[in-house]
Structures are given as C-alpha cells and as structure tokens.
Design brief:
By secondary structure, this protein is mostly helical. It has one domain. The chain has twelve helices and no strands.
C-alpha cells in the first residue's frame, strides 16, 4: 500500500510537471503557477473536512510553511526549465531532490555508507552525461540555464518532500494546508510584482486545473505514504516522476536524446534509487 501510494504520487507529479512545462511554452508561466495553485488550495478543503486538523498541530504548520516555500521554488524553476529545455534531460536532473534528505542526514551526524556514496557518484556522473550535449547545443538545446534551473528545482523539491514527511508525523491536514497556502501567497506576490493578470481559457484552462488537482493529489499520496511506511521506500518510489515527464515529452513533443544522454538519464535515475534505498 505504501509503495503504491508513492508510485501514484510519482505518476501524478510526472503528468503535472509535463503539463506545466508544456503550458508554460504558450501561456505566461505566472498564470500557470497562480491558477493551478489556486485549484490546489481549493482541493485541500475536502481533505480537511474528512480529517480535521488536530489541536496539537502547531509543528505541522511550521513544516508546512517550509515545504510550501520549497514547492514554490521547485515548481517555478522546473516549469521554466521544462519550457526552455529538453524535458527528457531536465526532469531526471530534478530527481536529484532525493539528495536533500541525505544531506540533512549528514548534517545530523549520519555516517555515509559505501552504497550511498556509490549512488551519489553514479547520479552525478549521469547528470554530466545527460546535460553535457545540452550545453554544447547552446540555444538550440537551451544551454546552461535549464540545467541550472533543474538543479534549483531539485533543491526545492527535496526541501518540500522532507518537510512534508516531517510535518505529516504531527498532522497531515495541517501540513498540507500550510503548504498550499504558503505556495499560493508566494505566487500571488510574484504576480503582483510582475503586474500580470492571470487569464486562461479553453484547453489551457483545463490543463491548468489538471495541474492543480494532480499536484495536490501527489502531495497527499506522498504525505500518507511517508506517515505509514519507511521513508527510504517512499523516497525510491516517489523519485521516478521524472521518468513519467521524460516519456511524455518523448511521446507528445517528439523529443530526441543522444545515446550518451539516454545513458545519463538511466544513470541519474538508477543512482537516485540507490541513494534512496541506502538511506
């Protein structure tokens, strides 16, 4: 059950990321972010009604705020990277988010094992293999910018996942409420600073609504899975979302990767899985 929920989270998040990156190519990104997050915020209401927030949920609010900041940074950076870069390269690099809880463990005094170090090394080598051709292509492949943005996204998602897992130990509903509201506030402030009025209709609006629902559902599945099962198992299953985004980019956008990039993507995903399993 735990693994199934985490895999569902990966599926939903992978689809949402693909839609977010694709829509950001033809709709102002801030429009996609604000409207989809508004949907995600409304989507938390049934959860709160089904499982009301407990009286001792104060720590959960704190971790929810932290996760909301991480989500805002991660999603905005990833959508921009997916909009200007190659999805099959950008998405797997974002999977390095699993390194954040590993680093947190190091800071907390955990001693890295040989398997963990091997997984990190493989993932880093894979990142170089996957991103190298993109840098040489310059503007044609997006250049350095989408690679840097995907690394920022990895950091943001790592903080989000870690904070959601810790907050869910206290109260899932409170964590999710603080998460979605914090992210929405950040997006609205950015919208006001940019002086953009978010507008969307037709298929674009349907896609944006889908992003909001899928994103919230993915967070909910991850929160429940992390509370009921081992975080290492949950992290492994939840780290495959880039594969979903990459496959959708290949299928619908007809993206093509060089052999070295395919090898790099495989190394990144494999290394991430090893890291997660060894934590």
């Amino acid at each position: 059950m735990t693994a199934a929920l985490a895999l569902l989270a990966s599926l939903f998040l992978g689809i949402a990321d693909f839609l977010g990156g694709a829509l950001s190519r033809r709709v102002p990104q801030i429009t996609v972010l604000v409207l989809s997050q508004l949907v995600a915020t409304l989507a938390v209401i049934p959860r709160v009604l089904a499982e009301p927030i407990g009286a001792d949920a104060l720590p959960a609010y704190g971790w929810g705020i932290v996760s909301g900041v991480g989500a805002a940074v991660g999603v905005s950076a990833l959508y921009r990277a997916l909009a200007i870069g190659t999805m099959g390269v950008v998405a797997p690099i974002a999977a390095l988010s699993v390194l954040v809880p590993v680093v947190a463990g190091f800071v907390g005094g955990d001693a890295p094992g040989a398997l963990l170090l091997a997984g990190m090394t493989v993932a880093i080598i894979g990142t170089v293999c996957a991103s190298g051709p993109e840098l040489r292509r310059g503007k044609g492949g997006g250049g350095l910018k989408p690679i840097l943005l995907s690394l920022v996204a990895a950091l943001g998602f790592g903080v989000n996942n870690l904070a959601v897992a810790w907050g869910s130990d206290y109260d899932i509903s409170a964590t999710l409420v603080a998460n979605v509201v914090t992210t929405l506030v950040i997006y609205v402030v950015a919208m006001l600073m940019l002086r953009v009025v978010p507008r969307a209709r037709g298929r674009n609006l349907v896609g944006i609504v889908a992003i909001g629902v899928l994103g919230f559902t993915a967070n909910l599945c991850f929160a429940i899975a992390s509370e009921s099962g081992m975080l290492s198992v949950v992290a492994v299953c939840a780290s495959v979302f880039p594969a979903v985004t990459a496959v959708l980019g290949w299928w619908f956008l007809k993206e093509r990767l060089l052999l070295v990039q395919i090898l790099g993507v495989a190394l990144v995903l494999g290394g991430v899985a090893v890291v997660a399993l060894s934590t």
